[in-house]
Specification:
heterodimer; A: Rossmann fold; 8-stranded mixed β-sheet; 9 helices; globular; B: alpha/beta; Rossmann fold; 7-stranded mixed β-sheet; 20 helices
Chain lengths: 283, 586
Amino acid sequence: MPTLDDYKGQTPTWCPGCGNFGILKTFKDAVVELGIEPHQFTIVSGIGQAGKFPHYLKCNTFNGLHGRTLPVATGIRLANHEMLVIAVAGDGDCYGEGGNHLNHAIRRNINVKLFVHDNQIYGLTKGQASPTSMEGMKTKNQPFGVFSEQLNPMALAVALDCSFVARGFAGDMEHLKGVMKEAINHKGFSLVDILQPCVTFNKINTYEWYRQRVYHIEPEYNSEDRVSAFQRSLEWGDRIPIGIIYRNNRQMLEERIPVIMDKPLVKQLPDLSKLETTLKEFY
Amino acid sequence: MDYTIKIGGEAGQGIQTIGDTLAKVFSRSGYHVFTHQDYESRIRGGHNFFQIRFSDKPVMSSRVKIDILVALDKESITLHEKELSDNGRIIYDSSALKQKHENQRFLDIPFVDLAAEHGGSKIMANTVATGAVLGMLGMEPGILLGIIKDTFGKKGEDIIKANVNAAMAGHDFAVKQCITCSFSAAPLAKPKMLIAGIDSIGLGAVASGCKFYSAYPMTPSTGIMNYIAGKGKEYGIIVEQAEDEIAAINMALGASFAGVRAMTGTAGGGFALMVEGLSLAGMTETPIVIALGQRPAPATGFPTRTEQADLNFALYTAHGEFPRVIFAPGTPEQAFYLTNKAFDLAEKYQIPVIVMFDTYLSDTEWTFDGFDVSKLRNTEYRLRGEAMEKLSEYKRHAFTESGVSPLAIPGESRHLVVTDSDEHDEEGHIVEDAETRIKMVNKRLFKKLPLIRQEIEPPVLYGDSKPDIVVVGWGSNYGVMRESVDALSKNVKIAMLHFSEIYPFPSPTPLPRGEGAKGRGEFDYLKLLRDAKLTICIENNATGQFARLMRAETGFEFKASINRFDGRPFLLEELVEEIDANIRRL
């Protein structure tokens, strides 16, 4: 069984107090408790503070381009669907730069776990508004405040019938761990939006701000009812629900491709014995 | 025998079906065949044509002059009547076109009525026309009937019979009516392989063990996706249509990282979106093959026409410095083998390899005696299972003598595979220090590049071995240049130099250990060029991109250039005339 020592990675370069530390610790606890070993999964990350995540633990890693985590993760899953694939992205990365990929990953229902470190701000580029920044937030680049409406990733995902939709909070690690484990065990595309305070650039959505608003979705809530899930996903402001908002049992993309019914693509060595027959088709 | 048949009409009238069927009849008859198409960016209407040239001698270009024009609409006659050879004939259906031509060159064949009468339905009018062409040529209908049986096999005996009757009706009608025709077909020979450039690339990928292809549809590259998708079940290949080209290249890189041979394909506009991913392949040293189909640009340009204006783009695009290989096959046969070589080099050196083509090569069909699968290179370069498990440690980007680090499959052992688009250390983790940066650039670029250069083959020399005139080109102009050399060689000492392995630019003299050194003797293409009285660079672009590359790489400057950038390919008589005009100016 893996232990936390097996997951000791490089030293994080995040600011002291960053919400990412809570997410990192929770993630390690979750995989250790699930008995997953470092070589058994791959993290695909993008660019931003969240993009550095896989370096700070131990796992197979593809730290690619800003916004492009989901296509790379999709390619890995299609080539090897026995590999657990987790995509780690920030709100700018995944909801801004790579927004189109999110729509289509949800549609495909590829079994990738997407953990979004959502700090409602751009950290690595030093404090510009992100797609989830709240309307009116003033930054150096948005001196008159943000004009655009805040993107609601939960409502978007429910609207697209995303297979698993959940929200966690970096300041509530025990609860977040449960959500992460549920997401990892779910079959199908899973979006976990993790509220992550940025202690340096986001002076509005602080630990305190979140703590006053987040509440655990009640145990009797039926997460399989899409209409109530949509209502729940719209909650933001005084009360912010955390937990599993919606899930369904849609068939995964990997289960629908005849070519990989028996074994993963990566385990099928090319059989070129039929080439002569194929060439005859051109006569 | 060297005949050209042109089938003209609106999109949706079935021009391609007639053309494909006739081309198949001729290749199965053992003739050499060359076909090319001209179509507009629309699904119905407009004016399109399909041109087939066939001969008992090798043909590899289209001519201006045509011998039989199958006119499915009035515009075909208006536009192409003047292209008719002295003994040429136009066949048409006066009732369908609602016009009658009394001129001897016209042959009125009631395609529609014969189809209704003998096939039982008007929709077989094209089958009647196909049969009629063979009748005019004095060819027996047997091979056509065989093709009809193959094509309609699944639709049942009644459909086959109806089409056979329609074909026979067209054939017999033409035999009776075309008494003044002077066509005579050569004796039959061993059937030949007939293949288009685009299918050759797809076939080359399948034959190289490609397991994953992701792309967004875009002319002229879509045919590759179609071909591979059709072979997916049989060969175990996943084809994923991506939401955009950015996703397409990133998916392919993900699949390649996970351990399978992966490819994407697009045209210039889509490649523009892939550029960031190209750089990612360079940094993460992830093998990938990219098929890049050129069409006239900027922007949307002429979506269905041809051009060779993306060479500079392919050479210089993407941020940063990393090795890449660029091929530009000149024939479907070269496309097949070079796609295979692209996979081989991509895997061997863990680099992106670009296979460039254009709409013309994509759409033209050629005949060959066959492709030789024993010539394919399918070496496994990846570190798998036990071999990987046995290692005491594994570093994805380990420094090695060759610059090539072992490429392992994630998940197949306890070793972790880590890579990064940031500058990284040997293990693949982010670094900021100058020393590692220098060592990594050294590894990725300077160590690999000389080895890659040794793999590159020299240009093909065709014609006189000590020529006064040398025509030089790359990519799809191979055929028309070669036939132009044949046409002019009676009067002058002329040769062609054709480059299909463009970058790294082939060395003028053999490299000591390179693949290109094999059987090359003392051939020095630069000396050949310098010794010639006239050198002409022939390209389908406005600025002479290849000529500029030659000058940059070798210092050699061509004396003349022939550039065409109207979206159309060079036709044989036109190119011969242009080369000849340059010779006369000497």
